[in-house]
């Protein structure tokens, strides 16, 4: 796994996995959709340990849960931060932020 990222498509949330075959250099991107109201996608850290911090970032900024993740907690925002700032429906509590 080269990278994992998340995106808000307004009707649903997505996680995009960027994969590369190190022998053939073939690359592929896999998109996994999840519901906006209860976003959840199984963790891939048992397969690709490098997904650890990427999943934590997507959890923190978009609110997608990754069941099976060994340490799913906020990584960028303070623990007491309300909401997920990369969601398109996010409304900051402080208008100056």
Concise summary:
The chain is of the alpha+beta class. The protein contains one helix and three strands; from the N terminus they run E-E-E-H.
Radius of gyration: 14 Å
Query: How many helical elements?
Result: 1
Count every beta strand, where a strand is a DSSP E run of 2 or more residues: 3
Arithmetic mean pLDDT: 94
What does this structure look like?
The N and C termini lie far apart (34 Å). With 97 residues, the protein is α+β, with helices and mostly antiparallel strands. Strand 1 (3-8) and strand 2 (13-20) form a beta hairpin. It has one helix and three strands. Strands 1-2-3 form a three-stranded antiparallel sheet, with helices on one face.
SSE blueprint:
Blueprint: E1 3-8, E2 13-20, E3 27-34, H1 51-62
Antiparallel strand pairs: 1-2, 2-3
Highlighted features:
alpha+beta; 1 helix; 3 strands; globular
């Amino acid at each position: 796994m080269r990278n994992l990222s998340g995106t808000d498509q307004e009707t649903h949330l997505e996680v995009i996995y960027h994969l590369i075959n190190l022998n053939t250099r073939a690359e592929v991107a896999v998109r996994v959709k999840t519901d906006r109201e209860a976003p959840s996608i199984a963790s891939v850290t048992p397969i690709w340990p490098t997904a650890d911090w990427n999943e934590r970032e997507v959890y923190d900024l978009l609110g997608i849960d990754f069941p099976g993740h060994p340490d799913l907690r906020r990584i960028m925002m303070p623990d007491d931060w309300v909401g997920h700032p990369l969601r398109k429906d996010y409304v900051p509590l402080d208008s100056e932020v």
